[in-house]
Amino acid sequence: MPSLSPAIAEIRLAVRTALAAVPDGATVLVALSGGADSLALAAAVGFEAPKRGLRVASLTVDHGLQPGSDAVAAQAGRAAARLGVDPLIVKVKVGTEGGPENAAREVRYGVLRDAALDLRAAAVLLGHTLDDQAETVLLGLARGSGAASLQGMAPVREDEDGIRWMRPLLGVRRETTRAFCAASDLEFWDDPHNVDERFARVRVRAQVLPVLEAELGPGIAEALARTAEQLREDAEAFDEMIHETIEDIVEHAEAGISVSVAALAANPAALRNRIIRLVVDSEFGVSLTRTQTLEVARLVTDWSGQGPIDLPGCSAQRHGGRIVFTAR
Description:
This protein is an alpha/beta fold. It has 12 helices and 11 strands. It has 2 domains: 217 residues, Rossmann fold, CATH 3.40.50.620; 74 residues, Uridine Diphospho-n-acetylenolpyruvylglucosamine Reductase, domain 3 (2-Layer Sandwich), CATH 3.30.465.
């Protein structure tokens, strides 16, 4: 009996571990582009799922952004069917708001969410790898928006509809997915956009990470992924502290919400700033920049009678012993 390829063994184990959190007999949906990462994921899920009585479907989104995209989608669907996965293919129109890459992502995730709801899927499985995680962390570092942007992609996230978004391959290198496909005789598609250096992510992949590896030594991608994991752990601890604190210091106000100045002042800056951001995000659905957050914090730490601060979707003003956030 031939020995199992190390790449196949590694990816099957990663998928088996992730699927352990899915109830027996449930449905899972694999996001399948036809590239090596998602094809290796679909193949491993197709192999592991029957052991748990799971139904597996795949969804391929044809964005129509490149010539022959319909043929690529059809090829992915055929590959899924051969792997014992029920293929779905959806053709969409992509706008231009925020750039074509961002617009395509928004449409794709919307279609995945709708399909998961229609199928009553317990989880959507995404093929992001450790390399994708490292690139995400570097892009977050370039944005300079703090620890939140350096946490990368979560291995598991549950949305408001109860759907779990899972990334079983976040600990797997991209080269391993290609080796999996080669060992499994799976023909994958190489997206031309993945080598188009108009995109910042591609420049990080093709230029920045190789330079870091050459100048600082191997293991940079793994180190960045570990950093993201550690920051997520810190954020979870902070979030737990915030939710325990926030119930005692927040009150609903007319057309908004208010927070105790004394309670904010008693907290360390990191916790105070997180409370401010969380209050605004939960009440008004907007994210504050660090500069905006620090301006609000000055109403607590450097109060000299300044007037209201205009923020996205709301304003902040000090009234006596409270910071009042009012919808605009």
